[in-house]
Amino acid sequence: MHENKGLTVREALKQASSLLMRVFAERAMMRDGGNGGDGTGGGVGFGKIGRGGGREEEAPADGAGPAPPADTPARADDAYEASVETSGSVSMPEGAARADDAYEASVEAAGTVPLPDGTARVIDADVAASGVTSSHMLPEPAVHAVYADEARADAEVLLMHMLGWDKTRLLLEGDTPFPAGLLDRWRDMLARRAAGEPVQHITGEQEFYGMSFEVGPAVLIPRPETELLVEAVAKRVRALFGPDDEGRIRRDALAGLSSAGRHGPDESGGPAERMRCADRTGRTQGRAFPADGGKLSVRLLADIGTGSGAIAITLARLLPGWRVAACDLSPDALEIARRNARRVAMAEGGRITAGQDVETAADFTGRIRFFQGDLLEPLIASGERVDVLVSNPPYIPSGDLARLQPEVRDHEPRLALDGGPDGLDVYRRIVRQIGRLSEPPRLVAFEVGQGQARAVAAMLADTGWWPGLEIVRDYAGIERHVLVWRP
Prior knowledge:
Elements: H1 9-31, H2 78-87, H3 101-110, E1 112-114, E2 120-122, H4 124-130, H5 140-163, H6 167-172, H7 183-194, H8 199-203, E3 205-208, E4 211-214, H9 224-241, H10 251-259, E5 273-274, E6 288-289, E7 300-304, H11 310-318, E8 323-328, H12 331-347, E9 368-372, H13 377-382, E10 388-391, H14 406-409, H15 425-434, E11 443-447, H16 453-461, E12 468-473, E13 479-485
Parallel strand pairs: 7-8, 7-10, 8-9, 10-11
Antiparallel strand pairs: 1-2, 3-4, 5-6, 11-13, 12-13
């Protein structure tokens, strides 16, 4: 970005959008052998983590990406595309150009994209090595049309995060001088994004179901389609178990849950059963749940492979009478999930007692517990009955990992991506472990990869445990979630 005298916030946004647009297009052309990610090859959408599509949609198939459904809306309407073709630029509201002429001229003259720290991102060597020639390059209008929207969106998110502004203020106060003291930070953020780091890792957060969640390299970034899984589960839970009030027990029992100690009986005098997690060190982790004993019947929903805790926390919010067990093998992921529970509880005005640490905070009145262990092992060890099981497990086939988009491949945890040779290994293991529970859950819900829904549904049907079946499509029309249940 140029260090222009009198630089305004709007001008900084325009320059950043232009920078990212060119980086996205050039990288796609090198990756795809010159087709520029124009929709005929794989990998269109360089920076689309968190804006639709599952993990595998960032993985270009051999020669062609997945065809969109017939009713998928066009990326831009015909008039917009026509204006791009005619003018050779992308129009912005109120006639503002998306990139200034001087910047574009410098790019054309140098054949490079200047990085924010003033170091040129030289692409000639990479292009030569890939075999891409000037005849492969997308025409300038096409480069704008394909990548301008994503570049603009990324630049806006980064700028609003840095300034602490919302979209309305950005639109109304764009002529405000850019704070000189933030230039170095702004350059660093753009350099990280240009290098392929996800926007969510740069800002440290991702919105999910209207809540802000902390994210980082230890957890998978929550995707919008997973919100559909949460909605489908909440709807099916209410249909199977009745309205929320029917899923609750006495308030004093819930109070006992909230005040249960780490060891021994809870403070209300009732029995307590400490859930155990057979991790690789043999340590017992987690906090106490009151034992059922035929007296207390708080139903339990288990989120297996909780990661950031987005599914577990959101379902705890939607199903106020339920206990939630959030299990993950990664201790780093669990720390983030615990912080997210506290973060959401504070944002929701939850009961946070002064002096409580993250683990013992009143995360939704103590109904959520976090356990380190391999899939269902913590629940099996405790003998706990699981009423609902939800999981968004790793589902990328191992052989496809190297071809994932760099935002995913280089920055998200392999533990949350690698699903084995066919992507279905973890589903098989979960189903086997379900057989070791005291009884199978009444409802099981999975997120799956593209083309996997029917195989996972058949796997679940083979057990004979669940006669009910629903397959939910995501925003792109892909069969994304599999739910099975018994009446």
